[in-house]
Write a sequence for this structure.
């Protein structure tokens, strides 16, 4: 079933033709030019592409994909390369298509509440564009200021507000895509409703295996009129977890519910001076949002529940500045953990929300057993864990042990009926766990779908599906640019 | 009619025939008139954990059963499925891809379907998605089942996300003299932070809106909405409010001898649509739902169907016949492409499911 890469002869022919398509500054082949692209947000994996093209038009992308198909050279298209699952690690000796220059908002229709964007548009740029019309684009991954919508589409990115508003796929109405053979297809449309099978939905989250998105039609929402952000401190992690269960059972539907444990609080404090209570074992952030009258009515119920849950300190964001501070602390937690440990792995398994407490106890037990520190930050409202597993890549075997611990956490999620990934995608990192989450026949079916759309397995070869193997160089330690403080993991 | 009672029997049924069409509650005659397999015996809620906001049920479960079960725990299906009281099933609603007027607030059916277990046209059992509210592992096969009319696979088991139900609802009606006034107003409401649960426009000039939320806040919100829309608004509470949306959702407004057609459109196409329809020598009862994103059109049976195709083509919108007897339910421009064909070739390699009516060409 597996096809081999086209080989060096084919690659040289491909580059000969690419040189006719791209000026030298947009076709990179020198080692020094390739090095910064070797890994993504998950720095444990690394591979060197044969070359990189930086298209500026849809036609250039289409021509490039066609040439790759013609010469049977695997390719991976990516934006800012912030994937936390190794999903945007280049393909060894393949072509990397860097889409950051395709960053135009092609259409913005406030009355219709849609925006049509190119794949290299930054996530946050859409909300910034829409802000004067009091609209916004709901999915808000922590990497929002840098990650691109093409990547969001490929990995069905989430964020802190998924319980109420869903993930990327719930906000993409239509797509123009180039399939791995170079054919262009229009999927979905620009209306909230559609007829026929939801092919847009089937493309979102396919991790680049079905081709490259050229145009993305996004649904925009009216900005909530008010936010009410509460930060509650607990003397135990379990109590914070129980508080989430209480809020959910009460009939409230907060925009976000987040928990940070002591270790992640320390990290965020060190990084951004978030000023968390120094004796708290856990912090719960709950954000009500919506029309003022409704939020006003929800406030007393929320406070009653938080009091009942045993919070010993409750703070309310008095203004936008304080709200921003709370969220900056939360969203900086990932990169902040870099201050506590030279290296870390972040997982994003999901458990049924009622099993959160049980899961945290298990993670704590594993952390002790392995003698590896694990910080926990999570989207508690939807049971989406984010254990940050710390290790020192310079120590022999440390990465392997950290990965082993990470694997045990994922197996725990599967055992409880959850998922191995809530929002980061499978990528390279979790391929091995797909067999544990899905049955062999389900996986075989997915592979057949992939094979039907991309018979040569060129598009992002080696990601998501365990049977589509491709060699990847692994190294230990932080990305060289990260060590120099040039990039950081959000 | 084959009536399997288990997933294995569905599989056997697929293996035993050349062509197959599925019916659930048979409430959408245009989609089920030629059915050869009924999901009647595939009924029941398998798992429901209110505190997880999820449930899993068999595809033939009547929506009414689901709604009743959820209500006991003050929860609901936020996509507001239509034809509940008429007897529609969960699976039929997914296959037809139908959401009701209340989809405006939190999203449509596609946004709440989390997982599926299906039997493909090739007779394989395939599990897709998951049972938790957030999941990004593997291809999103459940999405592809939405609106697929059973052409890819036969739905057997479905997992949904649900939400807490608003404690109270109130509705408002405002009448406008001119179409453009109503449309301008609709547009203002759509970009406002007023969080309408429903917003429907009924020609020639009536806007219907609904808000839902906490009992202690609802009257303040009604006041505010009244200020926004002006003194002419009529307010409907309790039973009256319920009845307005029941009628919309159950299509009580569609007269006899008319077929229901679903046409996804854009709010700014309503002008064009209205001038086309009013130019024809006939009455077309209709309703623009979801803030002008969907036209529900009642097409008189004696009226030429060619005109409807022409209408859809002019709007450049594919449409779906929901009731009536049509050669194929798809109308207007078709969105067909290599991507779909290739996915279909895996789901239904022998085209057992893809033909309308069963076995008679494409």
């Amino acid at each position: 079933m597996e096809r081999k890469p086209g080989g060096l002869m084919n690659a040289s022919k491909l580059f000969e033709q690419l040189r006719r398509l791209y000026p030298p500054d947009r076709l990179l082949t020198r080692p020094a030019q390739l090095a910064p692209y070797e890994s993504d947000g998950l720095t444990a994996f690394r591979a060197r592409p044969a070359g990189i093209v930086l298209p500026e038009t849809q036609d250039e992308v289409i021509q490039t994909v066609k040439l790759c198909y013609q010469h049977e050279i695997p390719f991976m298209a990516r934006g800012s390369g912030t994937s936390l699952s190794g999903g945007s690690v280049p393909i060894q000796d393949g072509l990397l298509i860097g889409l950051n220059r395709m960053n135009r908002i092609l259409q913005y229709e406030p009355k219709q509440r849609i925006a049509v964007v190119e794949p290299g548009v930054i996530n946050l740029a859409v909300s910034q564009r829409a802000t004067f019309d009091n609209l916004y684009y709901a999915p808000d991954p922590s990497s929002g200021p840098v990650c691109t919508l093409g990547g969001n589409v490929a990995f069905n990115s989430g964020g802190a507000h998924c319980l109420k508003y869903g993930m990327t796929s719930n906000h993409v109405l239509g797509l123009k895509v180039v399939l791995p053979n170079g054919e262009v297809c229009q999927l979905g449309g620009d209306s909230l409703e559609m007829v026929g099978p939801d092919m847009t939905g089937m493309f979102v989250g396919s991790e680049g295996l079905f081709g490259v998105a050229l145009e993305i039609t996004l649904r925009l929402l009216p900005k909530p009129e008010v936010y009410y952000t509460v930060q509650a401190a607990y003397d135990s992690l379990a109590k914070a977890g129980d508080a989430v269960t209480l809020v959910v059972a009460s009939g409230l539907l907060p925009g976000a519910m987040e928990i940070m444990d002591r270790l992640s609080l320390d990290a965020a404090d060190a990084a951004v001076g978030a000023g968390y209570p120094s004796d708290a074992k856990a912090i719960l952030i709950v954000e009500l949002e919506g029309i003022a009258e409704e939020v006003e009515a929800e406030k007393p119920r929320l406070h009653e529940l938080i009091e009942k849950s045993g919070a010993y300190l409750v703070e309310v964001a008095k203004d936008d500045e304080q709200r921003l501070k709370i969220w900056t602390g939360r969203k900086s937690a990932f990169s902040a953990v870099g201050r506590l440990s030279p290296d870390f792995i972040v997982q994003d398994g999901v458990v049924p929300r009622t099993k959160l407490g049980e899961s945290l106890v298990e993670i704590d037990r594993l952390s002790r057993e392995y003698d590896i520190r694990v910080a926990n930050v999570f989207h508690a409202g939807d049971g989406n864990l984010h254990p940050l597993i710390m290790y020192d890549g310079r120590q022999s075997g440390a990465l392997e042990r950290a990965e082993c611990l990470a694997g045990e956490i994922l197996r725990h999620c599967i055992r409880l009926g959850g998922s191995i990934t809530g929002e980061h995608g499978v990528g390279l990192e979790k391929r091995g766990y797909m067999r544990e989450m899905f049955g062999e026949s389900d996986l075989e079916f997915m592979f057949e779908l992939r094979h039907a759309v991309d018979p040569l397995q060129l598009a992002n070869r080696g990601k998501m599906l365990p049977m589509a193997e491709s060699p990847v160089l692994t190294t230990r330690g932080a990305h060289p640019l990260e060590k120099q403080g040039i990039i950081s993991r959000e | 009619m084959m009536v399997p009672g288990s997933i294995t029997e569905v599989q056997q049924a697929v293996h035993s025939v050349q062509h197959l069409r599925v019916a659930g509650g048979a409430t959408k005659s245009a989609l089920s008139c030629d059915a050869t397999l009924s999901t009647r015996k595939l009924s029941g809620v398998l798992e429901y954990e209110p505190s997880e906001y999820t449930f899993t049920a068999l595809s033939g479960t009547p929506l009414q059963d689901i709604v009743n079960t959820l209500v006991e725990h003050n929860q609901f299906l936020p996509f507001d499925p239509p034809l509940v009281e008429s007897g529609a099933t969960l699976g039929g609603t997914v296959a037809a891809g139908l959401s009701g007027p209340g989809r405006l607030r939190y999203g449509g059916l596609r946004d709440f379907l989390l997982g599926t277990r299906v039997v493909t046209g090739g007779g394989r059992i395939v599990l897709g998605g998951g049972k938790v509210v957030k999941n990004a592992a593997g291809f999103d096969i459940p999405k592809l089942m939405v609106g697929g009319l059973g052409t890819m696979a036969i739905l057997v088991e479905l997992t949904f996300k649900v939400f807490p139900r608003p404690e109270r609802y109130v509705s408002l009606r405002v009448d406008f003299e001119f179409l453009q006034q109503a449309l301008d107003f609709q547009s203002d409401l759509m970009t406002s932070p007023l969080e309408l649960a429903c917003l429907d426009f009924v020609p020639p000039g009536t806007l219907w809106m609904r808000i839902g939320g906490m009992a202690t806040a609802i009257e303040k919100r009604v006041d505010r909405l009244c200020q926004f829309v002006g003194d002419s608004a009529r307010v409907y509470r309790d039973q009256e409010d319920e009845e307005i949306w029941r009628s919309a959702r159950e299509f009580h407004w569609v007269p006899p001898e008319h077929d229901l057609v679903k046409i996804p459109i854009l709010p700014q196409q309503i002008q064009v649509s209205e001038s086309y329809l009013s130019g024809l020598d006939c009455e077309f009862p209709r309703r623009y739902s979801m803030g002008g994103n969907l036209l529900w059109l009642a097409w008189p049976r004696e009226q030429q169907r060619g005109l409807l195709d022409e209408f859809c083509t002019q709007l450049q919108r594919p449409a779906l016949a929901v009731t009536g007897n049509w050669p194929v339910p798809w109308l207007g421009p078709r969105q067909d492409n290599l991507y779909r064909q290739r996915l279909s070739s895996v789901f239904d390699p022998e085209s057992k499911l893809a033909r309308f009516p069963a076995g008679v060409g494409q």
About this structure: The first helix of chain A runs from residue 8 to 21. Chain A touches chain B through 96 residues (CB under 8 Å). Confidence is low (pLDDT under 50) at residues 470-490 of chain A. Chain A has three domains: 1-223+429-490, 226-335, 341-428.
